[in-house]
Every structure is written in C-alpha cells, then in structure tokens.
C-alpha cells in the first residue's frame, strides 16, 4: 500500500485534523506535503460537508447544511519541480471508503433556500437518502429495490490558481451575480428566475479554512479566495463519474509546485449529479501516482484538465433511454438549449419511475446516484437540442422496461424534514 501522506479523522472537526485541510482556492495556501515525480501516495479525505450529515431518518441536516464551509479538501500537495506551464499528471490507482471509520453514504436534495439543485423549481424542499456500502455495491433503505455497483471517484480535484487566474474567476463570477441581481429573469435558464438559488458564490470569510496560513494571512487571503463549488480551469468540482479507477488526469500548473488538492469522494453518481448533493457522498481515500510533463501546457495546447478514463466497471448493457428537447415543460420554445433539453429528459424519467411506485424525490435521487448516462445527442437541428438520459435496467430488482409497467408497489419514501423552512 502506498504511504499515507494525508490522514483525516472523521470524528474530529475539520479545523482540527491530523493534517490541515482547506475549503477555498488560493495560491498562498501552503502545501502540507511534498512528493517527487513518480511517487505513489495515499490521500485520505473527509466527506464534502465535514461530517454535517449523519446516518438517520431526518433531512433537517441537509436543510441546514452550512454551505460556507464546503468543500473540505486534502492538500495542497506540492510536486517537486513543478512550474507554471507544466502539466501535472495524476493516475488513480485505487479509491474507496475508509471502511471501519466510515460505513455509509448519503444523498441530499438541497432546499431552494440553501443551494437548490437542477430541478429545484420542482423539488424545493430538502430530503435525504442513506446508502449502505457493501464492498463495491450499495443499497438504500430510503430507496428500496435497487442494488448496484458504483463508479467510485473524486468529485473534486484540482491545482491551485495563480493570483491572475483567481482575479479573473472573481471578476467574471461577480459580473454574473450583478446581472442576476439587476434582472433575475435575464439568465434565461435559471430554474426559478428568482433570487434563490444564487447563480454563483462570491468569496466569503465566514467558515473559511485556509490550511496552514497564519491567522492574519488567512483572513486576508479568505477575502479573495475562490469558493470550491464550481469546476474551473484548474479542475475543481467537476463531478465527473468517469474519473474512476485507472484514470489518468492532466492538470495545468499555474503556481510553483502545482499544489494539488482533492476531496468530495463519491461512491456513485449519475451524469449531472442533478440534486446538487446528488452523489452517494462519503469520506474516503485515493491512492495516486503523480508525475510532470515539463512545458506541457504549450507543447500540448492544454489550458484545462483533460483525462483518459480507466476501464473499471460497472459495465451495464441494457438501458431505458429518455429524450428531452429545448422546450420547457410549460411549452416555451428555446433555441438549441441543452440545459432545457436535459431538464426535460430528467423530468420525463422521473414521471416514468413514479409509475413503479417511487416518489418523485426517490426518482430524482436515483437519477443523481445511479451511474446513468447523460448525452448531448443532437446540437444542430434548429430549434431543438436533443439530450438523452439512459437508466441502466440492471440496478433494479424488477423490470423497468415498458413491458414491466403495472408492477407498481409501495416503495416508501426518502427522509424528509419536520419543517422545510427551518422555522
């Protein structure tokens, strides 16, 4: 087994870990370990909320998650000799849960008032599902009659931005927030056209953990540090289910040492992670090998991460596939809008799964956790983009093909809140 260079304690608060963690992007956050090119190491990671979600049957914790805290990242890891313009190469050798220290996963529908989700206008209230982890497979008491192998992967991994790149992030995201504040409906594919959910998250010193920066340095850096919520040029919160075992990722290097950080381990996820806290979230570990390609950004014309997927399963063969088009559910025509099209495919799939006895919330979570395949299938046939969402049949313990309709059953419900607004 590779040497564990970053260890976490899932029983301890995030600001009191054996190795410092951080929850913002900033070039000045010091590296916690240095490795040489070619080294193989193990990195342990907290769950993305830092232990805010527990194994119970109430969704109040999801409703009340402090999103200023997230995500908790292990690192930064310095790779000796890495310089701006290089490519940092990461091979994922192994990945999994922390076993005896972490024995469950969780999925949440976030409240519209606290983060929202892809379909927050249809599912505005918080809900939760707990998943039992059985080796490489999982099942849930909250979403019965499914059992499947997950595509385990890190939801978030990336290098540190330069100061110039950080400033560019903040400027462009602030411009989007200003536009939304002036006219919420001007962002045409915003799910509610209202103030909530927000369109971006500006720097916020509240609950910022800045690694091993001193108090004064941490306070100053937190005022401009980028939130970890979206994917960006450094990688970040990409939530790509195919970043699984055997994957090789090439990251642009923007600062000396590269400063690679990672976290948000997912036991499984569907394309899109549509409920927002939509994967099967867990604390876990990554065994990785790190290397460098000197001057790789210019040599290969790469200024965003690229990757070569591994070939570990699950290997599903039979699917039920749903199509969606650039027309909203109330009949409004959009021009080649894949966001609207994928929403329609998801909504059609949810209505279909409800015919088998699942609630809308259960179906929504299934699309977010099962390794569904999302595709932008047509982008040129005006005025409609065509998006598809393919559900693997083998994850269910009954037939979900159209010939199986009529086999509806009482399948319970997910965990809900006792007060959606937390009054």
UniProtKB/TrEMBL annotation:
GO MF terms, alphabetically ordered: hydrolase activity, acting on carbon-nitrogen (but not peptide) bonds, in linear amides
Chain coiled-coil ranges: none
InterPro entries, per the entry: FmdA_AmdA, FormamaseFmdA
Region: Disordered, residue numbers: 1-23, 179-207, 217-236
Top-level taxon of the source organism: Archaea
Bias type Basic and acidic residues, positions: 179-193
Name of the protein in question: Acetamidase/formamidase family protein
Provenance organism: Halalkalicoccus paucihalophilus
């Amino acid at each position: 087994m590779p040497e564990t260079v970053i260890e976490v304690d899932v029983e301890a608060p995030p600001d009191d870990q054996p190795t410092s963690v951080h929850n913002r992007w900033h070039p000045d956050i010091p590296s916690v370990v240095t490795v040489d090119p070619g080294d193989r190491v193990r990195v342990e990671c907290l769950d993305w909320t830092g232990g805010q979600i527990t194994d119970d049957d109430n969704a109040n914790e999801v409703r009340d998650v402090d999103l200023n805290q997230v995500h908790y990242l292990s690192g930064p890891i310095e790779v000796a000799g890495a310089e701006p313009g290089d490519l940092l190469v990461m091979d994922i050798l192994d990945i999994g849960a922390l076993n005896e220290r972490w024995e469950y996963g969780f999925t949440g529908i976030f409240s519209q008032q606290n983060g929202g989700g892809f379909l927050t206008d249809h599912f505005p209230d918080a809900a939760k599902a707990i998943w039992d982890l059985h080796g490489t497979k999982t099942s849930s008491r909250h979403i019965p009659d499914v059992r499947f192998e997950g595509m385990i992967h890190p939801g978030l991994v990336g290098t540190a931005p330069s100061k110039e790149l950080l400033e560019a992030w903040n400027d462009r995201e602030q411009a989007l927030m200003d536009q939304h504040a002036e006219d919420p409906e001007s962002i045409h594919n915003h799910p509610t056209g209202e103030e909530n959910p927000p369109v971006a998250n500006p720097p916020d010193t509240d609950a910022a953990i800045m690694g091993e920066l001193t108090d004064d340095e941490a306070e100053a850096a937190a005022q401009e540090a980028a939130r970890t919520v979206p994917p960006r040029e450094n990688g970040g919160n990409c939530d790509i289910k195919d970043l699984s075992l055997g994957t090789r990722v090439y990251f642009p290097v923007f600062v000396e040492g590269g400063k690679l950080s990672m976290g948000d381990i997912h036991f499984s996820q569907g394309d899109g992670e549509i409920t927002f806290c939509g994967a099967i979230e867990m604390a876990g570990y990554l065994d990785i090998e790190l290397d460098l390609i000197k001057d790789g950004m210019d040599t290969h014309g790469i200024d965003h991460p690229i990757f070569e997927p591994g070939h570990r399963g699950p290997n599903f063969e039979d699917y039920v596939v749903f199509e969606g088009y650039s027309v909203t559910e109330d009949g409004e025509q959009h021009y080649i809008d894949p966001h609207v099209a994928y929403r329609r495919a998801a909504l059609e799939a949810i209505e279909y799964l409800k015919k088998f006895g699942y609630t809308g919330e259960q179906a929504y979570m299934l699309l977010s956790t099962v390794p569904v395949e999302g595709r932008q299938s047509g982008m040129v046939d005006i005025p409609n983009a065509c998006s598809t969402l393919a559900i693997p049949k083998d994850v269910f313990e009954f037939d979900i093909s159209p010939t199986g309709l009529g086999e509806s059953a009482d399948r319970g419900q997910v965990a809900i809140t006792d007060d959606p607004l937390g009054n």
